[in-house]
């Protein structure tokens, strides 16, 4: 899941700068636009592989595999310092970690009930809401209206085999947690040096999600092939895209980065078609276009305001 003009991308990209050293030499030969697009498709490919696991493991167990894998990878590069932290630092770090765990949990529950493109499009309402709330310009009503129209088009007003109200509810909850994640990410960045804030949050997330994930996954979590896929999901969904985005941000303006990241729901829908065979109706594609347009418009007007 992802940041752009709605969530300061420099903050997000800097968290895994250590891991980015492994990709830096190769990334220098790729145009920054290509790096951003590769990062977007990496995130969505990771979500696609995670959804493939739902036939073997429940979503909560897959979330545990992903977060635990991410925490292990982060631990290989970053060792957060816990000494000298105030109680406010602990509170922000713990809140960041809990939000990260819940955001991924409800998103995967949505993913189990909705096509990928629809789940990501609805989740995008969270960061879009943060951007609109921060702007408070009249034109933002247009982007709210476009996003609202997208949700109305996605709703299963009749019988539907691919979209459920429960899935939409989970996706909306994921959007709320994503909005909270954006705010807590900024707060953690001010209180923790370097990438240690995210590393601390990943550890907290693993502890929070472990009881649910281990209980629902059981002995299946010990299967080597599932552990390997979980590690791959962690790489595709976290380390690789964050590293690519960091390299891109060093070579392109932030507003251009934000515009490219607004294409993420469309990329999710495309991965859903190619990897999972999730064929969307014309009305559903129109809904995704509405939400992407709202995100693009919000990004551009935010740039103009600054």
Number of helical regions: 15
List SSEs in N-to-C order.
HHHHHHHHHHHHHHH
Helical amount: over 70%
Give the structural class.
mainly alpha
From the spread of the alpha carbons, the general shape counts as globular
Largest sheet: none
How many beta-strand segments?
0
The total domain count is: 1
Beta content comes to: under 5%
Multimeric status of the protein: single chain
What would you report as the Rg, rounded to the nearest angstrom? Answer: 18 Å
What features would you highlight for this structure?
306 residues; mainly alpha; 15 helices; 0% strand; disordered N terminus; cell membrane; transmembrane helix; EmrE-like; DMT family transporter
Topology:
Layout: H1 9-14, H2 17-20, H3 24-27, H4 32-52, H5 59-77, H6 87-111, H7 116-123, H8 125-135, H9 140-154, H10 165-191, H11 196-217, H12 224-249, H13 254-261, H14 264-276, H15 282-305
Helix pairs in contact: 4-12, 4-14, 5-6, 5-11, 5-12, 6-10, 6-11, 7-10, 7-14, 7-15, 8-9, 8-10, 8-15, 9-15, 14-15
């Amino acid at each position: 899941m992802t940041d752009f003009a709605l969530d300061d991308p420099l903050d997000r990209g800097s968290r895994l700068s250590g891991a980015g050293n492994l990709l830096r030499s190769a990334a220098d030969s790729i145009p920054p636009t290509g790096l951003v697009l590769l990062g977007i498709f990496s995130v969505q490919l990771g979500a696609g592989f995670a959804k493939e696991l739902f036939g073997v493991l429940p979503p909560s167990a897959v979330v545990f595999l992903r977060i635990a894998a991410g925490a292990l990878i982060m631990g290989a590069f970053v060792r957060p310092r816990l000494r000298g932290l105030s109680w406010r630092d602990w509170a922000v770090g713990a809140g960041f970690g809990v939000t990260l765990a819940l955001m991924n949990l409800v998103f995967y529950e949505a993913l189990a009930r909705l096509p990928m493109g629809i789940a990501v499009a609805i989740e995008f309402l969270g960061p879009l809401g943060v951007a609109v709330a921060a702007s408070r310009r009249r034109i933002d009503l247009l982007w709210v209206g476009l996003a609202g129209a997208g949700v109305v088009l996605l709703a299963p007003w009749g019988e539907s085999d691919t979209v459920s109200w429960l899935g939409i509810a989970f996706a909306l909850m994921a959007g709320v947690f994503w909005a909270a994640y954006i705010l807590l990410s900024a707060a953690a960045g001010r209180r923790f040096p370097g990438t240690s804030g995210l590393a601390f949050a990943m550890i907290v997330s693993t502890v929070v999600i472990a009881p649910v994930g281990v209980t629902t996954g059981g002995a299946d979590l010990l299967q080597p092939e599932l552990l390997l896929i979980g590690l791959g999901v962690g790489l595709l969904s976290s380390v690789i895209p964050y590293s690519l985005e960091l390299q891109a941000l060093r070579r392109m303006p932030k507003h251009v980065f934000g515009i490219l990241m607004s294409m993420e729901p469309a990329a999710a829908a495309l991965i859903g078609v190619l990897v999972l065979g999730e064929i969307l109706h014309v009305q559903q594609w129109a809904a995704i276009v509405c939400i992407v347009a709202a995100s693009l418009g919000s990004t551009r007007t935010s740039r103009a305001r600054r």
